[in-house]
Design a protein that fits this description.
Layout (H helix, E strand, L loop, with lengths): L5 E6 L3 H13 L4 E4 L6 H6 L1 H23 L10 H25 L3 E3 L3 E5 L2 E4 L4 E9 L3 E3 L13 H4 L8 E5 L3 H12 L3 E5 L11 H13 L3 E3 L4 E6 L5 E5 L4 E4 L1 E4 L3 E3 L32 E3 L10 H16 L13 E3 L4 E6 L2 H7 L2 E8 L2 H4 L7 E8 L5 E8 L2 H13 L4 H5 L21
Parallel strand pairs: 1-2, 1-6, 2-3, 6-16, 8-9, 8-14, 9-10
Antiparallel strand pairs: 4-5, 5-6, 7-15, 11-12, 12-13, 17-18, 18-21, 19-20, 20-21
Helix pairs in contact: 1-4, 1-8, 3-6
This protein binds flavin-adenine dinucleotide.
Length: 452
């Protein structure tokens, strides 16, 4: 029998890779190695969910001070001290990175802190030139921000750089309409930056329920962001003083202190040796896998953003875990990608699970239950921002096919709604549940008549 250096070699120490390595080694006793070329923890921990959410909290405290003043508190609001925040953020990310490293090592995983590339069906080449063999290889290299060709090399930021700014700019152009663009636009505005958000599509949050798109867009505008949809960048120039001059399809030319491209992410496969090893890729570069995350090369598997199924941390983790159970635990496990809940951490947040109204209508008759109102907490102080609670119900089976919430704490609420929906709850199950009063989410069980 062929002898390999390892049972498993994982390329990428992010959400999916770390979970797969830890379960394979710690629970199933496999001999596992992993390569990470940047920092352990990957996008989520180092330059995604975690630093983003901490910035959301930071911006939220500013808004809370404004609200407190309107409630009657005597508050003196100063400027946001980015340097102090950065200092704390760096320390927190270092702490988390060392926890990820320690947990993997405790499970018995050997970590190579360098780049690795696939050199064959059972071999990997490390950046230091060593060749390592493994019975199985797991590609967990994630994704990377996409910047359109003409604008590369100008010094504009992506989400990779935004957490590393030395100081806050006075003004910022945010390009893109996805969840990262919306969150970053609002965080920056909340920290005192003048933000223009430009998106070439007709509404932000493409793919989300249309009512969610409209509620979030309205909130962005109400909070002072210059939101320009149906507008594309036509030229970007770096000026001598370091600022940017941007031209757009509407003909306007403006200058900004900083520019953030949040124009999508692409699978991280460049130079990974996958084509040479015969691994099939989709047109956009994503590694093609079956339900068990196996590629067309039987010894090579892939999980997480590099497979471009659903680009979310909990999905990558679930895929990594299922891979380890399938290959090393003797329990073939396919991940169920249906009804995955997700949140957009704008102010208010959006939380969503299941089908949008548009998706559900395409499949059959539906009833739409919806409440849109100004929440008590902020309407008291005159804020116009509206909350949304929406259920998409199958008119035949009565099952709730989708739940969409725009409200403070929607990210927390949708997790619970997702359990009910995953269990197959009907509209009548929601109806027989007694409300918690006074809350916003009581609307979910008080929606009596369909609006359409
Ligand atoms: P990653 O976490 O990206 O890990 C891949 C790792 O592989 C990286 O550490 C990389 O350095 C390493 N690597 C790549 N190539 C090599 C190589 N050749 N050799 C060695 N190492 C390599 N998801 C949510 O669920 N909720 C959120 O709120 C959320 N917010 C986000 C905000 C931002 C700004 C961004 C960018 C993403 C956000 N995401 C969020 C998405 C989430 O971060 C990803 O879905 C998740 O990190 C994917 O995990 P992964 O294991 O596939 O890849």
């Amino acid at each position: 029998m062929t002898q390999f250096d390892y049972d498993l070699f994982v390329i990428g120490g992010g959400s999916g890779g770390v979970r797969a390595a830890r379960i394979a080694a710690g629970e199933h006793g496999a001999k596992v190695a992993m390569a990470e070329e940047f920092r352990m923890g990957g996008t989520c921990v180092i330059r995604g969910c975690v630093p983003k959410k901490l910035m959301v909290f930071a911006a939220g405290h500013g808004a809370a001070l404004d609200e407190a003043a309107l409630y009657g508190w005597q508050v003196e609001k100063g400027r946001f001290d980015w340097a102090a925040f950065r200092h704390r953020l760096d320390a927190e990310l270092n702490r988390l990175e060392s926890i990820y490293t320690r947990n993997a090592e405790t499970a018995g995983v050997t970590i190579y802190h360098q780049r690795a590339e696939v050199s064959g069906a059972h071999s990997v080449r490390l950046a230091d030139g060593r060749e390592v063999t493994a019975r199985h290889i797991l590609i967990a290299t994630g994704g990377t921000p996409f910047v359109p060709e003409p604008y590369r090399g100008l010094g504009a930021m992506t989400s990779n750089e935004i957490f590393l700014m030395d100081r806050l700019p006075g003004s910022m152009l945010v390009l893109g309409g996805g969840f990262i663009a919306c969150e970053m636009a609002q965080v920056m505005q909340g920290l005192g930056v003048q933000v223009t958000q430009m998106y070439r599509g007709k509404q932000v949050l493409r793919g989300f329920d249309q009512d969610v798109q409209e509620h979030v867009a309205a909130a962005l505008v109400q909070q002072g962001i210059h939101l320009e949809v149906n507008t594309d960048l036509t030229a970007l120039e770096r000026l001598r003083d370091g600022r940017f001059r941007a031209s757009c399809t509407q003909g306007r030319v403006r200058e900004f202190d900083a520019v953030l491209f949040a124009t999508g992410r692409v699978p991280n496969v460049a130079g990974l040796g996958l084509e040479a090893a015969g691994v099939q890729l989709a047109e956009n570069g994503a590694v093609k896998v079956d339900a068990y995350s196996q590629t067309n090369i039987p010894s090579i598997f892939a999980v997480g953003d590099v497979t471009d199924r659903i680009q979310l941390t909990p999905v990558a983790i679930r895929e990594g875990h299922a891979f380890a159970d399938t290959v090393f635990g003797g329990t073939p496990t396919a991940v169920d990608h249906a009804d995955v809940p997700s949140a957009v951490f704008t102010r208010p947040e959006a939380g969503t699970v299941g089908m949008t109204e548009e998706e559900a209508r395409a499949r059959g008759p539906v009833e739409i239950y919806m409440a849109s109102f100004r929440p008590m907490q902020t309407s008291f102080i005159g804020a116009e921002t509206k909350a949304l609670f929406k259920l998409v119900v199958c008119a035949v089976t009565r099952r709730v096919l989708g739940c969409h919430i725009v409200a403070p704490g929607a990210g927390e609420l949708i997790q619970i709604a997702a359990v009910a929906i995953k269990m197959g709850a009907t509209k009548e199950d929601f109806d027989r549940t007694i409300a918690v009063h006074p809350t916003m989410s009581e609307e979910l069980v008080l929606l009596r008549k369909p609006v359409r």
